[in-house]
Design brief:
Rossmann fold; alpha/beta; about 350 residues; 8 strands; four-stranded parallel β-sheet
């Protein structure tokens, strides 16, 4: 009887783990419920490298909440941003706004602006993805209900096109991507297995001078970075060549986006460029292209911006986490203080 129970228990667990890894929906649902540890609990760079000296457990920032909102007219803040402003890092309690809406660059949304509010839009982008985000007009927020904007209607597709779309959706559901990664995370993300991974990573680094391909270790071995931002051959890198023509195009796109959203009804549009970690802590690792400065201080830029790059450098303080590509509590607090100053 006991063997039978054990057999069916093991079978049930195996089926559950397979379904959890195979289905992105089940994976996203069961993760927050605590069925397996958070993949990013020790930092995104540690997650890629497993170097024990860069294990940086997530800490809750103190005093992040705003005591009161002192704006004269109700403010609705919209942020189009990336992981620096995602809900896990920034929420409405930290902002002096009466309403707050966040949208990731990977998504789009139709919104209706309420003229009873002072509507403010912040275009937030980390340095490594600024080239991508500002290569063409920003229109992730699609405004409806404004007197100069026609409500966006869903295009009338032919039955063949609808059938094709439904077939694509079904095949994506039937054969989801990244199954192996989800299964690996589900099975081997517990602390016991992390110890084994750390031992392997330390051995490879100390004996062969080799780290995982997704990261770059500084020469003094005191800092760790995303390959995308620290390897000069990557276009997202702080050290990839940047021509004046490309800078001018990005500035033009940002200006056009300002005009677009102001015409659509936004009262205020602000640019917020966040430096790559390496740009602040170790710019000597290559020939820094000064992307943020070239955009922000361009004489043709018409969009007001949140100055954070100069503050980080002038204060000469480490504002980034050791085992993560994002800023620490002090860095986030400084940025939030500048955002809240705009909202007042």
């Amino acid at each position: 009887m006991i063997l039978k129970v054990l057999k069916y228990s093991c079978l049930f667990i195996a089926i559950f783990l397979w379904i959890q890894a195979y289905s992105p929906v089940v994976y996203r649902t069961t993760g927050p419920m605590g069925f397996f540890p958070d993949d990013y609990r020790n930092g995104d760079l540690y997650r890629l490298s497993y170097l024990p000296e860069f294990k940086d457990p997530v800490k809750t920032c103190k005093d992040s909440k705003v005591s009161s909102k002192t704006t004269q007219k109700p403010v609705h803040l919209y942020i189009l941003g990336d992981s620096f402003t995602e809900p896990a890092r920034v929420d409405s309690s930290m902002l002096k706004a009466d309403k707050y809406t966040y949208l990731h660059w990977a998504n789009s949304s139709q919104i209706k602006l309420d003229t009873n509010y002072h509507n403010i839009l912040i275009l937030e982008s980390v340095e490594r993805t600024a080239r991508e985000h500002f290569s063409e007009k920003v229109d992730n927020y699609q405004i409806i209900g404004h007197d100069t904007i026609a409500e966006v209607q869903a295009p009338q597709l032919s039955w063949k096109r609808r059938l094709f779309q439904k077939s694509e959706e079904f095949l994506t559901w039937l054969f989801p991507s990244q199954v192996e990664e989800r299964l690996q995370h589900t099975l081997f993300n517990y602390d016991f297995f992390l110890t084994i991974r750390e031992a392997k990573a330390s051995f490879n680094e100390k004996v062969f001078g080799r780290v995982e391909s997704g990261v770059v270790l500084s020469p003094d071995k005191q800092a760790l970075f995303y390959r995308d931002e620290a390897k000069a051959t990557e276009k997202t890198s702080s050290f990839y060549p940047l021509e004046a023509q490309e800078v001018n195009k990005m500035v033009e796109v940002i200006n056009r986006s300002l005009t677009h959203y102001q015409n659509a009804g936004f009262d205020h549009v602000v640019l917020a460029l966040i430096p790559n970690k390496v740009s602040v802590t170790n710019p000597e690792l290559g020939s820094y292209n000064h992307l943020i400065e070239k955009i922000q201080y361009n004489p043709n830029l018409k969009v007001p911006y949140i100055e954070i790059f100069r503050d980080f450098n002038n204060l000469g303080k480490m504002y980034y986490l050791k085992g993560d590509s994002h800023w620490n509590c002090e860095g986030k607090a400084l940025w939030l203080s500048k955002v809240n100053a705009i909202l007042q």
